[in-house]
Amino acid sequence: MTEPIVRYNQVSKYFGDLQVLNKIDFDIMPGEKVALIGPSGSGKTTFARLLMTLESLSSGTIQVDGQYLWHEEKDGKLVKASSKHLREVRQNIGMVFQHFHLFPHMTVLENVMEAQVTVKKTPEKEAEKISKDMLDKVGLLEKADVYPAQLSGGQKQRVAIARALVMKPKVMIFDEPTSALDPELVGEVLEIIKEIADEGEMAMLLITHEMDFALEVADRIAFFDGGKIVEQGSPEQMINNPETPRLNEFLSRFNATNSL
Amino acid sequence: MFDFQYAIEIFPTILSALRITISATIVGFILAFVLGLVLAMLSRTKVKTIATITNGVIKFIRNTPLLVQLYFIFYVFPSFGLTLSPFVAGVLGLGIHYSTYLSEVFRSGIDAVPVGQWEVGKALNFTQKQTWTRIILPQAVPPIVPVIGNYFITMFKETPLLSAITLVEILQQAKILGANSFSYVEPITIVGILFFVLSYPASLLIKQLENKLNKKYQV
């Protein structure tokens, strides 16, 4: 049996007194595409940010490819991870943000090359080739020498996707990748994500409000509510036969807005 | 009243002291720049005690007069066994004093960089140092260059304070000349004009730089 690439074990997260995640157990298999849905404030974004180490754990453990992310084993005991250990495990994870966060002081090509050269120490020539191939793939090779400020939102997000992909993570988080885009630009970004998903080998954690898209891309959907995963299953099962009243309610609200 | 003959006669002597004024400004500024950046970074660390101590030091230095600090470095340090030349003491005082102002400027520049840039640094697995040098500072510094430039001019105009610790910069030179001839009008006037002639074009240059940067960063 294959081991999960990501394993959440009894993960809780508090912001002050507010509990946003409540003892969550969750596995992601290698290459698996998981969509996280749920109302805002349900904890799905925090859930993903813990994996990217953008928030720290309150309790529980997360393992990536068999290694503890936030902890390391010393003399048979789990202790807080050193920053060296954290970085070593973190290189398996990549993330695409809602607001792109491109480097405004670098050209498109430099944006994609930067981490390869600085972090991975890839020789510049090689990094340039990899980056250009990736830009070609997301359809933006002709924009290689412009600055992010001159791009549309959809183009920015495609560059951000290219920048994350060249680092070859085993798990990629997409945090509402189309929520900040004008409606007419959503399609081009979803298309790229779909393409990447079809290639298969990279696991994906997709936080989205695009229900049709989740249906199309995901192997499994997890529904978050009140800091817990209330229900999960295959997309067909979730949409057609929601078991819990909360999911039913959530989905009907979506259908209502979609039919407007 | 104003003796032009005498003014022309003493002008080269005053001008020769300008070298000291300018080198004190430049060395002091470099010190203020580097130390200011370090203070700005320390005041933002997550280690609370370090941040608190740094902020305390900044507040203390900003709320005591530069002249007192200069006296302290030059006249009090020797009683602790540290005797410094007027130039070194002056540059040290000037640099440390203005580093606390520059740290505030750096901090505003750093704070203006969106949080997302730090997050993407983590997502792409940059080290803390790489995040600073490759992502944050290249975005934080250009917008504050004009303010930093203005502090450079301010520091230049503050150098006459160093005459108080016997450094022979242009004001001190002028005072010496005045004391010898009992005529202060010419030397002091020359000093004033020299400062203006250097400061004003410099401020125009900074204005121009500001316009250029604004253009570049608001595309």
Automatic annotation (TrEMBL), chain A:
<dbReference type="GO" id="GO:0005886">
    <property type="term" value="C:plasma membrane"/>
</dbReference>
<dbReference type="InterPro" id="IPR003593">
    <property type="entry name" value="AAA+_ATPase"/>
</dbReference>
<comment type="similarity">
    <text>Belongs to the ABC transporter superfamily.</text>
</comment>
<keyword id="KW-0472">Membrane</keyword>
<keyword id="KW-0813">Transport</keyword>
<dbReference type="InterPro" id="IPR050086">
    <property type="entry name" value="MetN_ABC_transporter-like"/>
</dbReference>
<dbReference type="Pfam" id="PF00005">
    <property type="entry name" value="ABC_tran"/>
</dbReference>
<dbReference type="InterPro" id="IPR027417">
    <property type="entry name" value="P-loop_NTPase"/>
</dbReference>
<dbReference type="GO" id="GO:0005524">
    <property type="term" value="F:ATP binding"/>
</dbReference>
<protein>
    <submittedName>
        <fullName>Amino acid ABC transporter ATP-binding protein, PAAT family</fullName>
    </submittedName>
</protein>
<feature type="domain" description="ABC transporter">
    <location>
        <begin position="6"/>
        <end position="251"/>
    </location>
</feature>
<dbReference type="GO" id="GO:0016887">
    <property type="term" value="F:ATP hydrolysis activity"/>
</dbReference>
<dbReference type="InterPro" id="IPR003439">
    <property type="entry name" value="ABC_transporter-like_ATP-bd"/>
</dbReference>
<dbReference type="InterPro" id="IPR017871">
    <property type="entry name" value="ABC_transporter-like_CS"/>
</dbReference>
<dbReference type="GO" id="GO:0015424">
    <property type="term" value="F:ABC-type amino acid transporter activity"/>
</dbReference>
<dbReference type="InterPro" id="IPR014343">
    <property type="entry name" value="Ectoine_EhuA"/>
</dbReference>
<keyword id="KW-0067">ATP-binding</keyword>
<keyword id="KW-0029">Amino-acid transport</keyword>
<keyword id="KW-0547">Nucleotide-binding</keyword>
<keyword id="KW-1003">Cell membrane</keyword>
<dbReference type="InterPro" id="IPR030679">
    <property type="entry name" value="ABC_ATPase_HisP-typ"/>
</dbReference>
UniProtKB/TrEMBL annotation, chain B:
<keyword id="KW-0813">Transport</keyword>
<dbReference type="Pfam" id="PF00528">
    <property type="entry name" value="BPD_transp_1"/>
</dbReference>
<protein>
    <submittedName>
        <fullName>Amino acid ABC transporter membrane protein 2, PAAT family</fullName>
    </submittedName>
</protein>
<dbReference type="InterPro" id="IPR014341">
    <property type="entry name" value="Ectoine_EhuD"/>
</dbReference>
<feature type="transmembrane region" description="Helical">
    <location>
        <begin position="72"/>
        <end position="98"/>
    </location>
</feature>
<dbReference type="GO" id="GO:0043190">
    <property type="term" value="C:ATP-binding cassette (ABC) transporter complex"/>
</dbReference>
<keyword id="KW-0812">Transmembrane</keyword>
<dbReference type="GO" id="GO:0006865">
    <property type="term" value="P:amino acid transport"/>
</dbReference>
<dbReference type="InterPro" id="IPR035906">
    <property type="entry name" value="MetI-like_sf"/>
</dbReference>
<feature type="transmembrane region" description="Helical">
    <location>
        <begin position="188"/>
        <end position="206"/>
    </location>
</feature>
<comment type="similarity">
    <text>Belongs to the binding-protein-dependent transport system permease family.</text>
</comment>
<dbReference type="InterPro" id="IPR043429">
    <property type="entry name" value="ArtM/GltK/GlnP/TcyL/YhdX-like"/>
</dbReference>
<feature type="transmembrane region" description="Helical">
    <location>
        <begin position="20"/>
        <end position="42"/>
    </location>
</feature>
<keyword id="KW-1003">Cell membrane</keyword>
<dbReference type="InterPro" id="IPR010065">
    <property type="entry name" value="AA_ABC_transptr_permease_3TM"/>
</dbReference>
<keyword id="KW-0472">Membrane</keyword>
<keyword id="KW-1133">Transmembrane helix</keyword>
<keyword id="KW-0029">Amino-acid transport</keyword>
<dbReference type="InterPro" id="IPR000515">
    <property type="entry name" value="MetI-like"/>
</dbReference>
<feature type="domain" description="ABC transmembrane type-1">
    <location>
        <begin position="18"/>
        <end position="206"/>
    </location>
</feature>
<dbReference type="GO" id="GO:0022857">
    <property type="term" value="F:transmembrane transporter activity"/>
</dbReference>
